[in-house]
Specification:
This protein has 14 helices and no strands. By secondary structure, the protein is mostly helical.
Length: about 290
């Protein structure tokens, strides 16, 4: 179970990294919240047929906790993440998101009594150090990183996204640790709650779609939308639930925070130059992850 949970967490990180890259390249006039509603509705539509095979009854408490997890972690957290992604880029946003394991581990210790051992604490410290290194790298690259338009707002949005993601994972872990539930069903319930919470944004989404704001892009957008939704929403959230069902919440979130390491490989395609310090930080984060799972 520990091995399969670790593999599920790493696979979820890979899916989210690729999905972030797709969303970043997507020419679209929607705001962050409307874009989040679009991908949640599409992801829910893709997951619903599977419910005929895996659906099972759950107590009311499980419904409420998974619903709250979806609203906090997906409706609010992903909207904040998209807003930060547009201001900071893929690698920087994902690196700030690497602070989530520290927040989630402390919350898991306080709420679920899931305390990490010495090796896990060292791994969390290394991941946190990698976040600081990347920030120092960006500030010393001579690009006036801290003075770019929207930078401060982007950092604040990314940190709020960390809090929402950690809270959503903690709520989901409470259900998955106590109930025998399919990851697909858990993902569907979370997506359903997130979509319902964002329904007031639907008229604005439809208005933008009908108006066709902005020039027509030179390439079709729907393949990118579909690919990003399949990777980040449908498959990524299901893998996240599988990892949370089999690992303590802090360890699962640490493994899923390896996205910055994977994002370094995509940096040239995103017109980003991580440099030597960025590569070193990614390796340090990878070593921290190894300390957590060894």
């Amino acid at each position: 179970m520990l091995l399969s949970g670790a593999l599920a967490a790493l696979a979820a990180a890979l899916c989210w990294t690729l999905a972030s890259f797709c969303w970043r390249r997507l020419p679209i006039s929607l705001g962050a919240a409307e874009l989040n509603l679009l991908k949640n509705a599409l992801g829910l539509a893709l997951l619903l047929p599977l419910q005929l095979l895996v659906w099972q009854p759950l107590p009311t408490t499980a419904w409420l906790l998974l619903g709250a997890s979806g609203v906090l972690g997906i409706a609010a957290g992903d909207s904040l993440f998209f807003a930060a992604l547009r201001r900071l880029g893929t690698r920087t946003t994902l690196t700030i998101e690497a602070a989530a394991p520290v927040v989630t581990t402390l919350a898991g210790l306080a709420v679920l009594a899931e305390g990490p051992g010495p090796a896990q604490l060292l791994g969390l410290g290394l991941v946190s150090a990698a976040v600081v290194m990347v920030a120092q790298c960006q500030q010393s690259d001579g690009a006036a990183w801290g003075h770019q338009p929207g930078w401060r707002q982007g950092v604040l949005l990314a940190l709020l996204a960390v809090l929402c993601a950690s809270g959503g994972a903690l709520l989901s872990r409470q259900v998955l640790a106590a109930q025998l539930i399919s990851p697909w069903q858990a993902a569907s319930l979370r997506l359903g709650a997130a979509t319902l919470a964002q329904l007031p944004l639907a008229p604005g989404l439809l208005a933008v779609a009908r108006a066709g704001v902005g020039p027509r892009p030179p390439r079709r957008r729907w393949p990118w939308v579909l690919l990003a939704t399949l990777l980040g929403t449908t498959l990524g959230i299901a893998l996240q639930q599988a990892a949370l069902a089999q690992l303590p919440v802090g360890q699962a979130m640490t493994l899923m925070a390896t996205a910055p390491t994977m994002a370094v490989l995509l940096a040239p395609l995103d017109r980003d130059q991580p440099g030597f310090t960025g590569l070193l930080a990614a390796l340090l984060a990878a070593f921290g992850v190894w300390m957590v799972v060894r």
